[in-house]
Every structure is written in C-alpha cells, then in structure tokens.
Protein 1
Amino acid sequence: MDAMKNTRALITTEDLHGYVDGKLPPERAEEVEAYLLEHPDKAAEVEDYRRINRALGSVFDTVLDEPIPADQIAAVRDARPRFAVPLAAAAGLLLGIGLAWFAQGFDAADELALGQLAERSAAAYVVYAPDERHPVEVAASDSEHLSAWLSNRMGMTFQIPGLGNLGFELVGGRLMVGDSAPAALLMYENGQGRRLVIYLRNDLPEATAAEPRYARAGKTGVVIWARGATGFGLAGAFSEEELLPVAHLIQAQLSS
Amino acid sequence: MLRNRSLLIAEIPHLRRYARSLARDPDVADDLVQGCLERALSRFHLWQPERRLRPWLFTMLHNLHVDSLRHRASAAAGALREQTASRPSQHASQEHHLTARRVLAQIDRLPPEQRDAVLLVGVNELSYGEAAAILGIPPGTLMSRLHRGRAKLREHLEMTEGTPAIRRVK
C-alpha cells in the first residue's frame, strides 16, 4: 500500500500529458488512471486537454481522407534526379557503352566505387549471359558447393538469393575479378529464357552505403546498392520497374 | 528511387494535415506541402532509411512554414489567421465547430513556440522525442512548452471555470 502511494505520488505533469496523448506504456497509464480517481482536479485538467485534442482532430483529421492533389503526386513522380555529368562520362569508358548515371549527391569516393560496381555488373551481364554452353562455372544443381566456394573465396558468408517468387531460377555462378578480393557472379533465368546476373563484391570502402539505384547501359539495365563493404549489382535486359522488385527481394532475403 | 517515391507519396496526407494546422488556409497549406516535397526530393540522399521518414519531412515542412511567416508582414499574417481560423471544417459536426473555432482562435493567441508544441503534438501521431526533434528543441523543453500552452488554453477558454460553452461537447 505504501509502495502504491509512493508510485502515485510520483505522477508528474509530463505523465498527465503523456496520458492525454496516449504515449504512456499500459502499466504507467493504469497508474495515472488510479491517480486521477483520487485527484478530481487533475482528472478535470486531463479531460480538458483531451477535449482540446479532440477539437483539433475534428478540424484537421478530415484532411487525411481528402484526395491528394494531382500536382503533389506529379511533383514526386516526375522529379528527375540530378544528373551527374562527369560520372556519366566516366562510366561510359568500359565496353564503350553509355551508362547514364543518376547520381543523388553521394560522397564522391563512394560514387566512384558505385559507378565501377555498375559498370562491372553491366559488363558481366554482357559477357556471360548470352553464353549458351558456359554461362557459369558451377551449376545450380550444385548450389551448396557454389555458395560455400564463393563464400570462402570472398571472405564473407552469403546465402544464394532465391528469386522464384519473381519467376527467376538459378542457373549457377562463377568467380569474378574484384579489386582486393575476388567477387562473385550469380546468374538467373526466367521462363522466357531471359537472364539476369547478380554481381557481388565484398571489397568496397567500408563505409559505403547506398539504396538501390537504377542506371542504363545500352540495352542493359543495372540496379546497384551497397551496404558497408558489400556491393550488389543487378544487371539484365530489363526495365527499372522489372529490376527494382528483384533488388528489394534480394535485400529482404540478405538482411534477415 | 521508385520505392522512395512511393514512400514519399504515402506521407503526403500526413504532411497535408500538419500543414493545414500550421497555415489553416488550404491553398497556403498545399503550397507548403509542395515546397516540402520538392525539398525532400532534392535531399533524399540525406535521408537515412533506418530513421522514420515522417519526422524528417515534418522538420522541413515546419522550417518552410517558419520561413514563410518570417517573409510575410506580420499584419497580413494576423489578418489571414483571423480569416482562416473562422473557416469551419466541412466535415466536422456543427457541435464541434463552436469548440474547434474557439480552440483554434485561442491557439493562435499563444506564443509561437507554445503554439508549435500544442499543434504538433495534438494533431499528429508522433512520439514526444520526434516532435522535439522536429522543432529542434530538447524533449524537456517540448514538454514544458506543451504544458504551458495547454494550461494557457485551458485558462483562456475558461475551461477551469466550467463554462458550459466548451464544457460539454460530447
């Protein structure tokens, strides 16, 4: 009983507002309720604050249900990311392809690493995907060995992403060239025989971070993203709308 | 980018509600939202995905609002506020109009920093920590402004006296 009294004595003004705004954990809210039962003046104060909130809600909550003005949606949908000319030029060197790079103002060092990631992903697709007889070194039938082998050589553990949800089955993989460590290439194919590759490396500058971004190199679409030293490049003759869901699926699988 | 855009579009209704509480006039509020979206798009690379998008956007919206107030002559701002404060919501019940109009009129008489706290917390579902960050103040400061603002409202609305006009609105 004494303990109860002590707790009640500790109810502060902040608790009252927290109670009004629904910010208290359930146990604390119960303690406030008990306190209010014994303090009618405070209970009246709390009720008045709630009434103020309700009045605000009655005026402004209806805005949530209004249709979003078309020009606001258009502002978001049609905004063009800033175009980084120097990187676009640099990115075009490899394979003589014009890689349009939509930079969003990342750190310049990261930007170079990411640009290179995009180039190499596109190049890997162009070189290996059309190969009928030797597209991969280790076939999907041996996927356990493939994953162990690539993990070992790259110095990281990774699961081979399953893209069956989006209609892509694993063809297999191969070891690739990185900078300070080997990189990996995984190849997938869908029901129409269209292929895409994941170029994966683990030797980026440590602090690199980038959300999936799309770029185009001729007919090859590329989505790259990075997390710490690990960089991902997804490449194939697909549109942004087709590649981004694949990137998000891979992200979801590798982060869990 | 596509996912970021859909995330951003999903926030627009909440941005519009907050903007409406700040500006009152629907057109002025939507201009604020438009400006906020443009600013957000040009700075999306600064947003850290592990942080909530809404407080980040609200911070920009609030700053834009403060800027626009600063640029407006105070007399004009006062006139506008008076005019728009009396504009009733189309959907709220008649009974609520009286109360809401009185509450808004009194909120507009509060010192700006208390008004900011009462509106931000009262209109939007944010944690106190987020609300404090949006206004650029420590959480303790937010709580004291919130309390002083609400206590003053209660006094000005004569709630403490039990005046029937606002007393029973259920």
Protein 2
Amino acid sequence: MARKAITGNGAIALALKQVEPDVMAAYPITPQTEIAQNYAQYVANGDVVTEYIAVESEHSAMSAAIGSAAAGARTITATSSQGFALMWEMLFIAASLRLPITMPVITRALSGPINIHCDHSDSMGGRDCGWIQLYGEDAQEGYDNAIQAFRIAEHMDVRLPVMTMIDGFIISGAIGPVETLDDEQVKEFVGDYVAVNSLLNVEKPVTVGAFDSLGGWYFEHKIAQNRAMENAMDVIEEVGREFGELFGREYAHFKTHEVEDADIVLVAIGSAAGNVKTVVTKLRAEGRKVGVLKVRTFRPFPTEQIREALSGAKVIGVMDRSDSFGAQGGPLFTEVSAAMYGGESHPQIYNFIYGLGGRDIFPDDIEGAVEMLEKAAAGDTLAQQRHYLNVREG
Amino acid sequence: MSKTKPRKEKWNISDIQKWGPGRHEMGATIPESGNADDYETGGWRSERPLRDREKCNDCMICFFACPDSSIRVENDKMVDIDLEHCKGCGICAQVCPRDAIEMLNEIKACKLEEK
C-alpha cells in the first residue's frame, strides 16, 4: 500500500492498470477524460498486456466493448458527458446480454447550452439502462469502487455491467490523497476472469443477440435481468465488506453521519456529500439535530435500507445534482420519496437541486437549506417542494 | 483456426412455451449456433425469383450477392433457390449478367404452381 497525491482520473486509471483487463475499447478524444489517455500510456509503455482499441466514437466504444465481452474477454471502457449520451442505445444491450463490462464515468453536464462541467445529468439520465451504478465521493472512493466493480459485475449471481461515478473536475481533475493498493493485492482481490457463453469457445457454440419478438420471451428475459439486479444488492455489500476486512475501508450501499437521533436528514450523492458532512458537524456543535446520508449504490436502489435509516427523521432534504424536467423532483428525490411512502413514518420531504453545469455549492447554501428544513420541522410546511441552491433569482 | 465441431444434439426446447424467467440461458443466449436455418423467412416474400436454366451459366454472382444464403449450389452448379428462406429481395435478379432470374408476383407464382 502507498499514499499518493493523485487526480481522480489518475487514481481510477491506476486501479484499472492494477486489474489489467484483457481489452479496453475507448474513444480517446473529448469528452473523454484522462482515464483513457493514462491507460493508453500504460499500454504504450508496455506496463499492461491489455488490447487497447481506439474507436471512432463512444457509440463504437460501447459496441466494441460488447463484442469483446461477448467473445469472453474481461473488458473495460470509460466515458463522460456527451460520450455517455452517445453510448445510450448500446448501454441497454450490454446489460441485457448480461456482459460484466465495467466503466468509470466522470459525471459532467449534458448540452445544451454547451457546458463541460460537473453535474449528474449524464449518469442519472442512464439510471434505467440496466447497469449497476455506484457513486463515489472522492478520488479514494473512485479508486476503490473501480476495483470492486469487477467483483460485483463478474459475480455469477449478477453478471451485469457496472458503472462507477466520480464528479467531473471537482474530483476527476483535482489532486487529492489516495491510499493505493499493491498490484498483487488488487489482482488477488479481483481474481481470474471466468467467461460465460464465450463466442470464442468452439467446444460450446452459442448464439448471442438473437431476435426475440412477439410470441417470444423478451418479457421473461427482462424479468431475469431485474432478478440479477436484486441479487446484486447482497453482492455489493459482500464485496464491500470483504474489501474492508482486507484493506481497512469498508463499503455499504450508503453511509450515514449523525442520522440516528436527527430531526433533519440531508440525503446527498457524489462529492457534495463531503461538504454536507462538514456543515452537519458544525451545526451539531451548535446543538442542531441534523444528519446526512450519503448514497453510494443508486442502482439497484437500496429502498428498504434507506427507508429504515430515515425512519426517525421529521424532515428530509434530498440534494440532486441533476434535474428531471417535468417530474416531481430530481432522480434521487423521487427515489427517496417513493421509498419513504412505503414506510410507517411519513416525514416531509423536500428537494434541493444544486450545482448544475458546475455551479459551486457553498457551506452557506447548505446551511440555508437546513434553515428551511428546520422551519418545516417546526410545523411551518414549505410552500415549494423543489428548491434551487445558489441560483440568481428573477 | 480450428473448425467448429458439428453440434451433437439440438437444444431441447420441446416445452419452451412454458418457460419462465428462470429457465432461459443468461442474457437471452441460445446455447447452440447455426440456428438461423430454423427461422423460415420465406413467408415474408411478396416476389419470387424464377430462374431460367437455359440462360444461366452458373457464374455464381447471385450466390455471393444473396443476403440470405438462399442460392443452392452443388458440384459448382446453381441447383435452385431455397424458397423456405428467400425473402424475395430481388438482388439476384438485379445482379444476374444474363437476365436469367425473373421476379414474379408471389400470388401469381403460387397460382402457376397450382396449375
């Protein structure tokens, strides 16, 4: 193990290098990140034996990854923003073919207006494409999640693709401290790749991607896909626990801070969860009963566990870094609201949308949100359910 | 490159109409290859190719052009057209340098057959 000062991109590229998969298919030009660039460097330097396929678009990157994974190779790619959007149709195919591809995603805004900075519009837009989604707060979590993704994706009860997110620029481009593992530790943790129904296995020929129309079994296959998602719920926890036992950093579906006796709980995802935690610690020192729940697993969504963790709250504030146009609120808000509706307690739930297109969020903005929630907790129900933080009024 | 061994037995799908989500191969994979042959696409056809044996000199251009592998060849001779799979696209008639293939309305062709 070593402690390094490294960017989020650099940490993730290093994690991928330590796993050393068989194939990386990536589009190496913007909106791609340094992950693909750094990995290409590793290949060029002869540090890894990975076959690097430089394709002509992100649509082709995912198509090549699908072909490679179906052929029986451990396969990765990486993406961000418009590149993620261009992969769109192939993301569903990777998941429905049950190919355990892993993909770090640097979350950034989608055009338009043209903007390259951090928000969650890209990955949240792809929340229903059948991929497992793990969100990291910082470069350390990006590194750890990128490694665990292989174990989760390749588990025989799951066999689904996994995307691991970190926030664009704020984490991906900033240098921070990361505890890295040794190459051998990573390789041993991830283990050897076991291909299922490989196209290159001539002893057992298979047909992949066949037509399945009216009168067929499309519906049944979709249910099987959702069962694999349900199985992933336990597998993500098992892998996170084992990672903790071996390396001292344990992972679950989410993490709570000061939630148990809190009247007000903020729910956050991504890098802002760290800012919220700082504010919560400060407010606790003032005697205010505030807590924070940081979501890591968004797909499959840990509905029951989150409902249980938030059951004591009077008021919940859900923070979304992407909006869902015409919906009741952002993606995390609707998910948390639906979870709480199925429970015994029915706390008030408000949505705070922040940080679109890279807009900063300051501790004062978070404190302002808490003040609003405190009024609601005192019985003064807020007129609006959806609020925007750090925006120009008018 | 090693050749694919001929499959020993067909995928047993005798009761597939009853199969629920748990019975299928993961990812809708079919555990055998070469099964496009089982899908008879001839029913899609609205025009049928009719070959004139007198004009045809077995040049095989239609064989290479056919997108459904429906030109049957034996001993270097174009034997006939596999109407169970031919979708009637007419590419063979287009590419034939000797105009030896004519496309006939499928209903008329069926009536001719009946006579």
